[in-house]
Amino acid sequence: MDRNQTHRNRKRALKTLHFIALFATMSVICIPGLWIVLNSFRPTVEIMAKPPIWTPTFTLDHYRAMFSGAGEGGVPVFSYFRNSLIVSVVSTAIAILIGMSGGYAFARYRFKGKAGYFVGLMLFRAVPGVALSLPLFIVFAKVGIIDTHFGLILVYVALNVPFTIWLTDGFFRQIPKELHEAAEIDGCTRWQAFWKVEFPVARSGVASAAIFAFLTSWNEFALASQLTRSVGSKTMPVGLLDFTAEFTINWGGMCALAVLMIVPALILTFIVQKHLIAGLTFGGVKG
Amino acid sequence: MLRRRFPEWFVLLLPAIIVIAAVVLIPLIFSLYSSFTPYKLTRPSTLWTWVGTYNYEKILTDAKFWAAFGRTVLFLTIVLNLELVLGLGIALLMNKVTWGQRTLRTILMFPMMFSPILVGFQFKFIFNDNIGLVNNALQSMGFNVALPWLVDGKLAMFSIIFAEVWMSTSVFAILILAGLFAMPRDPLEAAKVDGCTPWQSFRHITLPFLMPFIFIAMTIRSLDVARAYDIVQIMTGGGPARRTELLWTLMSRTGYVDARMGLANAMGYVSILLSIVFTIYFFHKLSAARAQIGMGG
Amino acid sequence: MKRMNILKALLASTSIVAAADSAMAQDWGSFDGVTIEAKLIGGEQYEGLYARIAEWEAATGATVDIISKKSHFEIDKEIKSDMAAGTTDWCVGSNHSSFAPQYEGLYVDLNDLVPAEVIAEFVPGIIGASTVGGELLMLPRAQFDVSVLYYLKSNYEDAEQAAAFEAEYGYPLTVPDTWEQVKDQAMFFADPPNFYGTQYAGKDEAIVGRFYEMVVAEGGNYLDEDNRPIFNSDAGQRALQWFVDLYEAGAVPAGTTSYVWDDLGQGFASGTVALNLDWPGWAGFFNDPEASQAAGNVGVAVQPMGSVTRTGWSGHHGFSVTNDCENKDAAASLVMFLTSEESQLAESAGGSLPTRTAVWEANIAAAEAGDDPFRAEALAAFAAGAEYAFAVPAIPEWGESTNLVFPELQAAIVGDKTVEEALNDAAEAVDELMRESGYY
Q1: Prediction pTM value
Q2: CB < 8 Å to C102, chain B
């Protein structure tokens, strides 16, 4: 009886401890981010106040200004949003296709220098954006694809292919070969067998690779700032700098645009959450 | 036609190879060449002057460069290890949660929605010594201080590390969490029956199983850790008095503000080598860990 | 913010109405079917002017295609990248006096395209600062920058405080007229971490510019005629000592070496800094009750003097025409339009400073006649301050030299090096740069 009691107490204490630790962690993760969201709804005079004002006043001024015309604090939000969306979605889709085909090659074929190819492909991802931006600009300028969606899409595909190959490779590897052999015996071509048998199994791997690729493209700044110039191709991270002038910065406005960037990404992440974990679980480890 | 000449695996890999060659390889060759010239952006003709290893000699004998190099290695080491430990801790906490996990996991990934440049601005304001959130909070709690977060040598390094860790720990946490989900239950139960303490079963069963996930996370992070450039550039710009100068801030200032692209590209190559060393190291560890739990291949 | 915008809009619309007649009268030429590609600086403060472009398009039949719009440093980076890639066949670019010398061979000499009598209508000193090696590289828009002293008026209205100050320092407490007085008062007002005496830009080109103007105020200079660094002179050491003393005394925020303009502006607007040397772009912001806690309490005075003179590090924005532009006449017409009297009246109504003599006079007259005493006070201070304005050396290496100097200045301020060591190290590095560049 007594032992049971202490046991139960200990369990309860552990549970409380766990809750507190989790709460503290989530707070550290959330507060800096929520601070941005909060600032987008506060008048500028409060954001920078000293002594600080802890009870915020609510205002939509920053949003109203952002959607108004040029010269009144407006920025072409819709264009930036459209550019970001086009570039991120298209580049993610292409990166997934190319990466999947590469991952399949690594998983299903034996060839000489396989490990070398694999590490080699990964290493290209290791080149820092700052080191790449100028040479890339010069090459793109010669070809004439500066300030186009196409140029940026191409770059993001290259950035995201290695990781996609990695994840999908792990997935295809754990699908028994017999599965598609059986399908081929049933009269499917290899191509059909792939789409009917192997792809559905690898779906969550693809979903998790896709969300990582999407977030990378959606948030990338260093290369986008170099390769885009006009309203026709600037993405949202580059658009953030519209709120800075030579001497001034409109922090409230910047936060408002940031919120518009964060919310869609967050919703998307929530939707694919289930696949995400499953995808990562089987993807990487069995490589 | 194509199929007869190339094996199938090559055809399947070809798109990936082409895209990467076009976007990374060609520019890399160009920048390698230019690192042997006094190339100045505003004087394009300087691209055709060959100076041999002059740029490399210049940076390799420059104490400021080595200081930045050392600081970058230190930064990488601290950041990656800290993210690992915190990520592991968060994953273990999350794994125990039985209710609302999907929402919690989404919240956990919250920082991943932030563009690095935004993270830079965000923490620059949070750590502002006069009107920043942190000092305001400290003062409201009764501490009559204004800590110079972005100026003091140690605090400035702490601040940029904090920002970087805040942004990227989620990646570790989510990958390790995936590993925990995949973990078979039987060995743990068996260990419990055998009378192992929780620490023992964590140390000898859970951790080895998680190792591949940890190294995957390490490799992925070491691949794009240079994204920290955006953050550091905005928060401190490498200052004050070079206290937070990293290879990347030094390089971009030399290349774009001073327009000395040849010299900057030479630095770029050193930083690429550094990234490669880190990546290969973790790859190596990854294979070893996979072999250990019998998943090699 | 809202009230300011209404005021801005009102002022702008009246001046546009006034300008409309003369715009009709002025002949911008006829360029039917021509498309001018332009790269313009973006940001709230600069955008108002671009709304006027439609007027020029209507008058000339040409179209303007804005192929890039970016912030100050981003557009500089982009133009340098363009020069590297050889993609410089666009026509009109935003330019800045500090950047202009770097773009060697990119822009035409506007003396050949713009009538001399038009050039003569601008403030001569500013035309001088737009000229590099005898070539007029840009035509200035109404974005002239020089700093004056903003201060919190309430500090000078407290008799008890004034008496305490006089007892301690031996002279009456008034708005400071010398940098020595600024130092005394800053130390007197400071009550860290709640209130600071003053603050200064602490990194990048910003701190070097601030140091530079102080060196000149002390009777020294940054470079000599051969572009040799001479800022490590006695005057230079006195100048840097001023920054160090304030930092050591805790009279400036401890984070000041991480500040650039936005931090400084936000700091003063938070009402926790007594004295602030700052740019014209902030005047409206500081006195706007919805943006600034200092609103209603802001005074503006001419910048204080050093032991020798008053000085003002200055710069200005303008527009340039590229050498590769196909239709230079049309491009020059656009540049003249954007910098015309009407355009400058409209743009400076938003609070920025003009670069044309007539617009200066018109603005001052309007402010004196108007019912906004703050604007009149600010404009008078800037008019006085502009007389001491100087531009940075018109050499491509200016920017690069500041990158060598600023970490050393910071090292002295935070105490890593002595003033003398820091300045000697900086001078040595700049000396090497200048020798490498072949000046001597």
Answers
A1: 0.85
A2: 42, 259
User: Do A46 and A85 reside in the same domain of the chain?
Assistant: no
Q: In chain C, whose CA is at the least distance from the CA of A71?
A: C48
Touching chains, B (3+ CB pairs < 8 A): A, C
Tell me: do A58 and A135 sit in the same domain.
no
Residue C293 has pLDDT above 50, yes or no: yes
- State whether A19 and A136 are in the same domain: no
Asked whether residue A182 is assigned to any structural domain, the reply reads: yes
For chain A, list the contacting chains (3+ Cβ pairs, <8 Å): B, C
In a domain, residue A104? The reply is yes
Structure tokens at B51: 């100076």
A82 CA: distance to closest CA in chain C (Å): 17
pLDDT over 50 at B1, yes or no: no
| C257–B237 CB contact, under 8 Å | no
Name the residue with higher pLDDT: A160 or A119.
A160
Domain's final residue, options A23, A41, A65? A65
The pLDDT tens digits of the residues spanning B137-157 come to: 888 888 877 788 888 878 899
Model pLDDT for residues C411-439, shown as the tens digit of each residue? 999 999 999 999 999 999 999 999 988 89
**B115 in a structural domain:** yes
Amino acid at C422: A
Q: Does domain C2-145+314-383 have CATH number 3.40.190.10?
A: yes
A74: closest chain C residue by CA: C44
- Whether the pLDDT of residue C242 is over 90: the answer is yes
Minimal C-alpha gap between A29 and chain B (Å): 7
- Assess if residue A70 is contained within a domain: no
Q: What is the mean pLDDT of chain A?
A: 84
Instruction: Give A-chain residues touching B88 at CB under 8 angstroms.
Output: none
Structure tokens at C71: 């912030």
In a domain, A168, yes or no: yes
CATH at residue A237: 1.10.3720.10
Q: Which of residues 227-266 of C touch B (CB under 8 A)?
A: 253-258, 263, 266
CATH code linked to domain C148-312+397-436? 3.40.190.10
In a domain, B13, yes or no: no
Could you tell me which chain C residue has the CA closest to the CA of B127?
Answer: C255
> Where in the sequence is the domain holding A97, given as residue range(s)?
76-285
Number of domains in chain B: 1
pLDDT in tens, A97-118: 999 999 888 888 888 888 888 8
> Based on the domain organization, do A111 and A174 belong to the same domain?
yes
Residue A212 and residue A125 share a domain: yes
